[in-house]
Each structure stands twice: as structure tokens, then as C-alpha cells.
């Protein structure tokens, strides 16, 4: 097969998104989402790009590199690499990696990460042979909204109200004309995310990134972006997002300020989000958590989320 690898063209975003989604169907991409990430990375001053491998006019594989605004370092990159199922084992992945590796060297990459399911028949071996080392593990989990039983949690709102804690949606906060809403939500997320286990050290999430990547996300569901409030102070949050290429809903950050943990706030937020998903007619909610995030994994298990096989973050350093 005569392969060519080059930067993506405008008419190839759909094909690239399709191949990435086939490789990891529980984390789907639309062409719109893939293009939006590229635009955002450029606007934020980050380095990103998408390469495609093709034979003739048909896209056979895709490789992408970007930078994580929540764990940013100028020489640290996040990768995706996927080959069309009918072209696996024919050298497409090898050609993509060769081109991607050269591009990363041009950008002085010191560390790169890529995710792969531990049960994938090809990816773990492919990555290890190219100097990647299995590092942090994550679990994606799914909840069947249609069978969720909320009876054990119906007293939670009253219990929280007795402590002066109330839940609000982004939709109702906007309708109420809440002053400084965006700045307060940014401050809440900044506090709530500090202790979330992650592969690389957290860096501050700028207000610009928060506005673009969270509040500006076209898939954000304002009725399912929920905030816990006490005496005017925002103390916890969760959010659901929808992709145009999946009927499932996806969980953003669920977190509670340190001083308010252990009071049922996270549980109440998650249960309320499930109720919002049910009202939207969604059948499934997906979430993902680091394997060492024991409190959130325990909460998700208790609510009925079912774990998939682990996803592994593979790390490659420039010296590898």
C-alpha cells in the first residue's frame, strides 16, 4: 500500500473523527469537536496538529497532538493515534508514528502521553515497542439511567438544606441574572480540581480556557451543570455534556471544596445530574476516573456505574 502522511485537509475532518471514534468508541469525536480543539489550542497559544495517513484519496489513519491546559507544560503533549479497522496490520500505524515522532521532535517535546485500553489487541504492544511505558490507569464507567433507583437518595436534598446547602443549575443561575456568575464558576472549578488525581501536575486553568472549553463547549447541558451553594458561596459542582455523535452523556468535573467534603454534597450533585439526564431522555451517563481516586470510584460504584476494562496512560520521554 502506497501511504502518504501529511497535515489534515479541511475536507478530511469527518474521516479523521470517524477513525478516532472507532478506535475508542466510548470517547467519541465529531469533526466539529476535533476542529474546535485545534482552533482553541491555537487561540490559547498552544501547539497542536492533526496528521492523516492516506492511500490515494482515502484516509486510512489519523494522529493528533495537543496540549492539556489543565496540566500545561510547553514541552508536554497529549497524543491520539488510530488506524481504520480494515487497514490495521498494514503499516499505517507505523507510518503515522514515524511522522508524528518527527513533528514532536520539531516542537522539542520532552514528554508525550497517549491512552489505550488495556484489553486492546494491538495498541499496548505497539506503544511499548516504541518506547512508551504504562503509567497511570483510569476507569471509564457507565450508568444505565433508565434503571437507576433514586429511593435511597430522596432525603438528601432535605439533609443538605438543613445544613444550608442548596443545588442550582447553570440554567437557573443564568435566568436569575446571578452577578459575576462566570467568575464565580471559574473560581469554584479552580478550587475543586486541585486534588483530582491526574497523570501530570495540575496547572491553573485560565479564565479564557474555562470560558472557551467549559462554558463555551457546544455540548454543555446548562440544566445538567449543577452547583452546590452555601450562604452565597459555591462549594461543589458537576456537569454533563453531550456529543453530536453519541446518544450518551459524558461527565465533566465533579468536585467539592475541601472544607465541605464528607457531607454528601458530591452524592447529591451526582444524583441530581442523573435526574437531569433522565429528564433529557438520556439512557446512559459515562464518566472516567483515575484508579487512585478512591472516593469518586466508590461513589460511582455505589450509584451503579459499571466499569469498563482499565484505560492506561502510556508515557514516553524524549530520552526514551
UniProtKB/TrEMBL annotation:
* Domain called N-acetyltransferase: residue spans: 3-159, 171-320
Domain of life where this protein originates: Bacteria
Instruction: Determine if Iron is one of this entry's keywords.
Output: no
Q: Which UniProt keywords apply?
A: Acyltransferase, Transferase
> Pfam families, from UniProt?
Acetyltransf_1 (PF00583)
Entry keyword annotation includes Ribonucleoprotein: no
Q: Which InterPro entries match?
A: Acyl_CoA_acyltransferase (IPR016181), Bact_Acetyltransf (IPR050832), GNAT_dom (IPR000182)
- What protein name does the entry list? GCN5 family acetyltransferase
Q: Which organism is it from?
A: Deinococcus aerophilus
Amino acid at each position: 500500500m502506497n501511504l502518504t502522511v501529511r497535515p489534515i485537509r479541511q475536507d478530511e475532518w469527518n474521516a479523521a473523527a470517524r477513525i478516532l471514534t472507532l478506535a475508542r468508541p466510548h470517547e467519541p469525536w465529531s469533526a466539529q469537536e476535533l476542529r474546535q480543539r485545534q482552533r482553541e489550542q491555537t487561540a490559547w497559544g498552544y501547539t497542536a496538529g492533526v496528521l492523516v495517513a492516506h492511500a490515494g484519496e482515502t484516509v486510512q489513519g489519523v494522529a493528533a497532538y495537543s496540549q492539556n491546559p489543565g496540566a500545561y507544560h510547553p514541552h508536554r503533549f497529549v497524543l491520539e493515534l488510530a488506524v481504520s479497522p480494515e487497514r490495521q496490520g498494514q503499516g499505517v500505524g507505523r507510518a503515522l508514528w514515524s511522522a508524528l515522532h518527527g513533528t514532536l521532535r520539531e516542537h522539542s517535546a520532552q514528554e508525550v502521553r497517549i491512552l489505550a485500553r488495556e484489553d486492546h489487541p494491538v495498541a499496548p504492544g505497539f506503544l511499548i515497542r516504541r518506547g512508551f511505558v504504562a503509567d497511570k490507569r483510569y476507569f471509564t464507567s457507565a450508568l444505565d439511567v433508565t434503571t437507576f433507583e433514586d429511593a435511597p437518595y430522596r432525603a438528601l436534598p432535605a439533609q443538605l438544606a438543613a445544613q444550608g446547602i442548596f443545588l442550582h443549575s447553570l440554567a437557573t443561575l443564568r435566568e436569575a441574572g446571578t452577578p459575576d456568575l462566570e467568575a464565580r464558576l471559574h473560581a469554584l472549578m479552580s478550587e475543586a480540581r486541585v486534588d483530582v488525581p491526574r497523570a501530570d501536575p495540575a496547572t491553573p486553568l485560565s479564565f479564557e480556557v474555562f470560558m472557551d472549553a467549559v462554558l463555551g463547549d457546544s455540548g454543555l447541558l446548562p440544566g445538567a451543570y449543577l452547583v452546590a451553594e452555601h450562604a452565597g458561596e459555591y462549594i461543589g459542582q458537576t456537569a454533563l455534556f453531550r456529543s453530536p455523535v453519541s446518544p450518551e452523556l459524558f461527565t465533566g468535573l465533579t468536585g467539592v471544596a475541601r472544607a465541605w467534603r464528607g457531607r454528601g454534597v458530591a452524592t447529591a450533585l451526582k444524583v441530581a445530574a442523573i435526574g437531569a439526564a433522565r429528564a433529557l431522555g438520556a439512557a446512559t451517563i459515562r464518566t472516567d476516573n483515575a484508579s487512585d481516586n478512591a472516593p469518586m470510584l466508590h461513589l460511582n460504584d455505589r450509584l451503579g456505574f459499571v466499569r469498563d476494562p482499565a484505560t492506561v496512560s502510556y508515557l514516553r520521554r524524549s530520552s526514551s
